[in-house]
Specification:
Radius of gyration: 15 Å
Number of domains: 1
Strand content: under 5%
Largest sheet: none
Distance between the termini: 16 Å
Number of strands: 0
Length: about 70
């Protein structure tokens, strides 16, 4: 049960990173002049989404071994 929960919980940040990248590229395609701002924001949001995956991993390991 715990392994399925971890796989599900880690897949959502991966999906979020994919959506962030797709929407950032779409926004840059619509407004190329804003590319530096959009790129910076996209990288920052992807880092936050990746942090969620790390938090899930840490919580899973705590539950499993404690």
């Amino acid at each position: 049960m715990n392994l399925q929960f971890m796989m599900l919980a880690v897949s959502f940040p991966a999906l979020a990173i994919g959506l962030i990248g797709a929407k950032a590229m779409e926004a840059i395609g619509r407004n190329p002049e804003a590319a530096p701002k959009i790129q910076t924001l996209g990288i920052l949001l992807a880092a936050f989404a990746e942090a969620v995956a790390v938090y899930v991993l840490v919580a899973f390991l705590i539950v499993k071994f404690v």
